[in-house]
Amino acid sequence: MNVDIQRQTETGQQPDDPDICRWAEAAYLGDDGAAEMTVRIVDEAESAELNQTYRHKAGPTNVLSFPFETPPGIDLPLLGDLVICAPVVEREANEQHKPTQAHWAHMVVHGSLHLQGYDHIESHQAEHMEALEIDILARLGFSNPYELTQQP
Prior knowledge:
- 43% of the residues lie in helices and 17% in strands.
- The protein is an alpha/beta fold.
- Strands 1-2-4-3 form a 4-stranded mixed beta sheet.
- 30% of the residues are buried.
- The mean pLDDT is 93.
């Protein structure tokens, strides 16, 4: 799998490129390794602008997924783009009392599954997607991101 990483901000405790690639590869459920995706790490201003433009929601969000829609008759291995807001991911990790690295891994896995057509709009879809995330993250050495964390 080819993962293009674009860093538009240096804020926060960002993971290294090899970690991001490893997490995206673990979340790729295709039968070949030819897939390609972009992970763009941004600040709150860019995240908020994209969230408003494409989801019609105000403010920044943790991860946005933009699946590539292949035109009919064209066979390209492009999955699409993930846009991850570094300050939001770090803030959420702190608020949820989770290791920042674990939350980053969850956002990459979660977004990668969205690029492959998984969703969580309906409850049965959410259960299936969450089960995949839990399994992928466990194989990567991370705990269940949906378990309630203990307050310090």
